[in-house]
Amino acid sequence: MGSWIPRRFTGLANRWRSERTGVERGKFGLSHPDRSTTYAAPSGFLARLPFRSYSVRSAMAVLLCGRLLRRNVVAGFLVASTFVALGCQGGPIVRGQSPAATSPPRLLATPESETTAQPIDEASTAGGSPVTYVQIEGNDAITERDIRNLLRVQAGRTVTEAQVRDDVRRLFATRWFFSVEPIYRPDPGNPAGRILVFRVVERPMIRAIRFEGNKRLDDDDLFEAIGLRAGSPFDISTNREALRRIDELYREKGFPFAKVRLTTGDKRGDRDVVFAIEEGQKVVVAGVNFIGNNYEYATAGILKTKLTTKRALLGIDLFGGKFDPKTIPQDKEGLTTYYRGLGFFDVKITHRVLTGDVLYNPFRLGDANLTIEYKIDEGQQYTVRSVTLRGNKVYTTGQLATDMALTKGQSFNQRYLAADVQRMKEMYGQLGRLFARVNPLTRFDDNAPAMVDVIYDIDEDRPYLFGPIDVHFHGDYPHTKETVVLNRLLFQPGELANPKLINRSERRLAGMIFERGPMRGPKIRVRPLEPEELVPKKIQADPLSGLIPSTGHENTGSGRVDSPRFVQRAESNSPLTASTRTLLQTSHRLLTDVLTGEAPPPVARGQNPSPNPAAQPFNPILENSPLGDPFGSLGRALTDPNYGLLDIDVDVTEARTGRLMFGAGVNSDSGLIGSIVLDENNFDLLRLPTSLQDIGDGTAFRGGGQRFRIEAMPGYYFSRYLFNWSDPYFMDTDFSLSVAGFYYQRFFYDWDEHRTGGRVTLGRQLTREWSLAGTLRFEQVEIDNPDVPTPDLLLAALGETWFTTGKVSVTHDTRDNAFIPTEGHFVQASYEQAFGDFSYPQIRGDAKQYFTLHERPDGQGRQVLSLSGQVGWTGDDTPIYERFFAGGYQSFRGFDFRGVTPRQAGFPGTGVGGSWMALGSVQYQFPVTADEMVSAVVFTDFGTVENNVAMDDFRMTLGAGLRVTIPAMGPAPIAVDWGIPVIKNDLDNERVFSFYIGINR
After folding, report:
1. In this structure, what CATH number is given to the domain that contains residue 366?
2. N or C: which end of the chain has fewer CB within 10 A?
């Protein structure tokens, strides 16, 4: 079949950009300035696309001209005449060609007398005289050597106009000169040469800079802030900018009332620059008080979380306490927004600032403490009198009003209102009504004080289908494959345009490969296609068929596309970094070949075979394709006027994906552990470097969306060293593949354990919540230094043993957050079978459920109840190092690490592990501080580890703990628990206190 391939994600002809990678010289194509991908397409098909095909048509005309010129001289003459008449050189410029590609650089004219350099015509360029000398005139304070160091033109060479312009621009950038004029003079000593003169007019220089009145900040700090020195160019605007920087520096240092004036240096005749400074007192925000905050959920602690200004900790401004008068309006706006969001529409807030001298702190003598006092007039909290929906036709009012959070009789709550709007928009989004609008209005009645009517104005619009998708990469050296983006999208052309899928896709892209945030984060832009932009319903036979020979893609007539014969890689400085062609798969996944190169194989414009039309279903878009309908269900959008089609553009900015991290952790189970991690989240195993430049610009081994990790974790009791490679979309499918190798060492109380091995895991994300994984594990385990006397199970495992296991696991995860979940559940079940020196089955189950029992009206301050349980059973031939143990902060608090275990008769000091485990936990967590940085937990852990399926040795602990969240250390870096066993076995090892602290950089 032909050399064009429709792509899964671009349904509607995918906005074909070019033939193959044809943006190189001699080819044709279109590309985005930030590196959009280009696609192969039949040129006849391109010529008929009504959108963005003008440059493609011009390029096709060029190819046609070349073919006709070679075949027939007369025809060539006629075609050439036509091009001249139509002005074909004035057509759109595409990458790889330029209207002036054959014109040599224009040179500065060589005048007969002294004159400003001017460009000359092409005829005089060839005979241009070389520059024999470069001369500087007009400089006084600035040395000629400093000026020459900035110039790039050289004597003895022909100088171009562009080189002179660059040098002039470079001299102006120093701000040393008012004017720079390049001129030529004849060289008296060499009639064939000429002298290039740069005539400059200097700016005046600063003679001296002085600071008057500064006592708390020395001159060096101020000089560093302003960036000026004696001898710098004198410029009034620069001096005023220096004044602003000094004022800003004083505010940063805690002097908000400092005043800075420019007493000298703001007039043209000045040559000195003098700053007069009145520092004032250094102040620290010692307190923030509120008056009139009577609402239950407007305590001082809660209101402080809405402020930008923070109180100094212990009176020291290292951690907060900086005062800036500019933040007061922002703080008042934040408080007002909070109150109005809870229905206090009439709230009024005023403030005053109180200062007092520091009396009892010898380190802050002369400073002042500052207290900000906010006086709040809350007014009445408004109640919802009625809820009305207008404009809905597709859904009934009853359907839309089901499960509304904000209902009649409730206190108004902006968060509930937003949740209802979002829920209704999601309902319309499920029907493909992407642009449906739900506009909430609030109406007040003077005759009904403290009452508000809520009105939802609904514009249902019409349903849309996802159409062609274009991916645009941004960054210094774009190198990511397009499929890395496409694989992470949760929609494809032909599907109903659900905005929820767009939002989830954006969040999915904003991860470790691409930048995140409102400015540089992933953006999915949608635009309805106009009717005239759609593909014509009929595509006629290609009139240029047979004019261009076929190439390396062989048409087998089998309905598939053969791979190209070879792949060439582009030079690193090529403006095009990747061109992707994709084809439809029955599995609805992408199969992608990335073609990059300066000289791709010749373009094939082969025709599809023409099977019996009577045997083919009629397709109004593309007839008789052995691939079937590449546009999927897009035909519905083209034939049904009730459906619209969307043009999709995905913009992503590549992030810094490689990291070298150093960290440390300490916990009660493993002691102190160090961490050195080399992590690359956009790895490409097959992108080998072809030059040193590939390594220098960071494109080698990158761009495939794979992850490569090398980790070293040395510790006193525990050490681990591993490497791991994983591909979340192996071969552009829904399957993930992970390969790991590791060395593990652990010094237990009863023996020392060393493990060396590897794992291969193949996974599949079935749905958003369901996933399936299969793992092969190969391990060599060495057990030495056993406890004496030694139990039988430990004796059987001494020395080196080998085993292999196969494991299948299924997971269902609906948690709202993987680190600090508050809703949802996590359930995992697995079966593992071992072979080798030991042969045994093992079954495990793990379940966790989270409930939010209470939260503040603003959605913060959640109190969470969590339930968890673990069960496991293993066969009789299981070695001691694979049996079940419990105890420690991760499994059974109140007991020592692995302190809950059966013991062999006659060996009370050595735990041998159990073949049955059943553990459970109930925990209640609630915030202690309003900002939720500190939370408390109360818990009970219970369960047993036995040699048989029984509950004979049931244990239970009661306890409490703290959770401290410090953003700089991670989402949940510090956990401290106290657990007291209330039911226990006499031989159990107890530990009341357990903790975990982790720091990563």
Report:
1. 3.10.20.310
2. C
